[in-house]
TrEMBL record:
UniProt keyword terms in alphabetical order: mRNA processing, mRNA splicing, Nucleus, RNA-binding
MF terms (GO), sorted A to Z: mRNA binding
Organism placement in taxonomy: Eukaryota, Viridiplantae, Streptophyta, Embryophyta, Tracheophyta
Protein name (database record): RRM domain-containing protein
Cell location: Nucleus
Originating species: Amborella trichopoda
DNA sequence: GTTGAGCGTT
C-alpha cells in the first residue's frame, strides 16, 4: 500500500525514514513523491491508513537513501504548504535509522562520500522541539480504537474521545479515574446507568415509527466499495469469540 | 462530505 508497486518494505538497507506530519487526508504518496524527490533519492513512501475507514491517518513516512538528503528534506520541506496545509517533516523514531537518531535529533549522519552537509542549521530544530513539546499531550489513541472495536461500536469512539478531551476535569472530579479505565466498570455503566446516551439516542420514539433494522441500513451509501470491506474487516463478533483465552475471562463467564 | 495529535506496512 502506498508504495511504488511493491508490498511491504522494498529494500531497507540503509534508508532513512522521515515522518511527515500534518498532511491532508487526501494526500497520497504520489503527491509527496515529486516534492520529496527533489531533495534526494526517495526509496519509498508509506502512508499508514486506518484499518476501519481505510483513509490515511494524516502522516506519511518518506524513506531516503542518504541521510544528508533526508536532512535537507527536513530543512526544506518542513513547514512547506502541501495541498493547502503546512506539513511537518522530521526524522522518524522507528525504522532502520532509529539507531542513529537520538531523541529525534541526528547523532552522526553525514557520509563523507556525499559531502553535502552544509545545509544543516540547528537553530531550526529548536523551534521544532518547542513546537513538538507544546502539542505533546497524549501518546496513543489507537488503543482506544482497539478496545472500542471489540465493543462493536465504531461510531462512539470519536464521541467518547472528544468528551474526554473536552472535559478532563470530569475524570479528576470523579475521585478515581481508574474506574473508567476498567472495561468492566464501563460495561456496567452502559448497561445500567447511562443518561447521556439515552438523551443522545432517543431510539424509543423512533422505534415507534421506524423499525430498528432500518437504522442499520443507510438511506444513501457513502462508498459502495467500502461496504464489503468494512463488513469483512469488522464483523460483529460474539463476546465468546472475541475474548481471548486469558484468566480475566472469568468476568465474562460470570 | 466530515476530524487534526501523532510514529509505520507484508
Amino acid at each position: 500500500m502506498s508504495h511504488f508497486g511493491r508490498s511491504g518494505p522494498p529494500d531497507i538497507r540503509d534508508t532513512f525514514s522521515l515522518l511527515v506530519l500534518n498532511i491532508t487526508f487526501r494526500t497520497a504518496a504520489d503527491d509527496l513523491f515529486p516534492l520529496f524527490d527533489r531533495c534526494g533519492k526517495v526509496v519509498d513512501i508509506f502512508i499508514p491508513r486506518d484499518k476501519r475507514t481505510g483513509e490515511s491517518r494524516g502522516f506519511a513516512f518518506v524513506r531516503y537513501k542518504y541521510a544528508d538528503e533526508a536532512q535537507m528534506a527536513v530543512e526544506r520541506l518542513d513547514g512547506r504548504n502541501v495541498d493547502g496545509r503546512d506539513i511537518m517533516v522530521q526524522f522518524a523514531k522507528y525504522g532502520p535509522n532509529a539507531e542513529r537518531i537520538h531523541k529525534g535529533r541526528i547523532v552522526e549522519v553525514f557520509p563523507k562520500s556525499r559531502g553535502r552537509s552544509r545545509s544543516y542549521s540547528p537553530r531550526r530544530r529548536y523551534r521544532d522541539d518547542y513546537d513538538r513539546d507544546y502539542r505533546r499531550r497524549s501518546r496513543s489513541r489507537e488503543r482506544y480504537y482497539d478496545r472500542d472495536r471489540y465493543r462493536g461500536k465504531e461510531r462512539d469512539y470519536r464521541y467518547r474521545s472528544r468528551s474526554r478531551s473536552l472535559s478532563p476535569d470530569y475524570n479528576h472530579g470523579r475521585g478515581r479515574g481508574r474506574e473508567y479505565d476498567n472495561p468492566r466498570s464501563r460495561s456496567r455503566s452502559y448497561d445500567s446507568a447511562s443518561p447521556a446516551r439515552r438523551s443522545l439516542s432517543p431510539r424509543k420514539s423512533r422505534s415507534l415509527s421506524r423499525s430498528p433494522s432500518d437504522r442499520n441500513e443507510s438511506p444513501r451509501k457513502r462508498s459502495p466499495e467500502w461496504s464489503p470491506s468494512l463488513a469483512s474487516l469488522s464483523p460483529r463478533r460474539r463476546p465468546a469469540d472475541s475474548r481471548s483465552p486469558s484468566p480475566n475471562d472469568s468476568t465474562d463467564g460470570y
